Amino acid sequence: MLLLSLTSDYFLIVKAETPNVDSENYIYFNVSGCLAFFARRIDVIIADNPSVNFTIKPVLTGGNCGNGNMSSLSFSANTSSVVLPAVDFSFQFASYQNGYWGLDSSKAMYNATTYKLAMEWPQSPISMGFKCSNMAQIVALNSTPRVEFSFTGLQVQPFGISDGIFTEATDCIGFLSSEILSSLLVTFLLLGIFTYGLVMVMGIQTNDSFDDPKHKVTQIFGTTD
């Protein structure tokens, strides 16, 4: 693995030889050893006519952690866009009394204007991080033209971490994914059909004369004129 150190708290990993990560660039922030941020890539989508897509390149980072129940991360990035040449991100994380933490606020500043990001995710245990392989595109609220950010392979852990090493993480997909829900629906449908068929079969009643072989056979005699 080849690392390019830009500051004491920031590393841009240029190439990775690990089997789980391909050869494209990805981003890793280590803030004071107690806050870690990873993203395979971050894209900016400008909904112009037509829409254009740019991959950002972080150049500077900052933040703090262990400050009571709050942690923060901010970083600047450049793009090759004339409309949006640079963007500054800021994230605030809060820990709660129930032993969980969550994203308190997220903002993006570009062209001298700060926009709130429509970014939400479920709370995670304080000793675990959060990850999302395929997060939906994040909209910069009230942006004109409409600007969205795509975080691919995101993983964040602002609490319960040491030396910038991730622990276990909760996933944005959760347990009940669309595939699992579809499988459960088909399973319950088949069980319903099977139960209905079984009840119908058990409800069939045969004639008593067939059940008892000693039963006197009823004979019908006919006469002809």
General description of the model:
- Helices cover about 15% and strands about 45% of the residues.
- With about 220 residues, the protein is mostly beta strands.
- Strand 3 and strand 4 form a beta hairpin.
- The relative contact order is 0.13.
- Residues about 1-25 have low confidence and may be disordered.
- It has two domains: about 1-170, Porin (Beta Barrel), CATH 2.40.160.110; about 180-205.
- The radius of gyration is 31 Å and the shape is elongated.
List the helices and strands and how they pair.
Layout lengths: L1 E6 L2 E6 L10 E6 L3 E5 L1 E6 L5 E4 L1 E11 L2 E9 L7 E10 L4 E11 L2 E4 L7 E2 L3 E6 L3 E2 L7 E11 L11 E3 L6 H25 L5 H4 L14
Parallel strand pairs: 13-16
Antiparallel strand pairs: 1-2, 2-3, 3-4, 4-15, 5-6, 5-15, 7-8, 8-9, 9-10, 10-11, 10-12, 13-15, 14-15
Q: What labels would you give this structure?
A:
225 residues, mainly beta, elongated, Porin, 6-stranded antiparallel beta sheet, 2 helices, 10-stranded mixed beta sheet, 13% helix
Task: Offer a quick outline of the entry.
The chain is mostly beta strands and 225 residues long.
Order of helices and strands: EEEEEEEEEEEEEEEEHH
Structural class assignment: mainly beta
Kindly give the count of domains: 2
CATH fold category name of the largest domain: Porin
- CATH architecture of the largest domain, by name, is Beta Barrel
Helical residues, percent: 10-25%
Based on CA inertia axes, which overall geometry fits?
elongated
Biggest β-sheet strands, sense, barrel: 10 strands, mixed
Give the overall average pLDDT. 79
Beta-strand portion reads over 45%
Beta strand count: 16
Count of helical stretches: 2
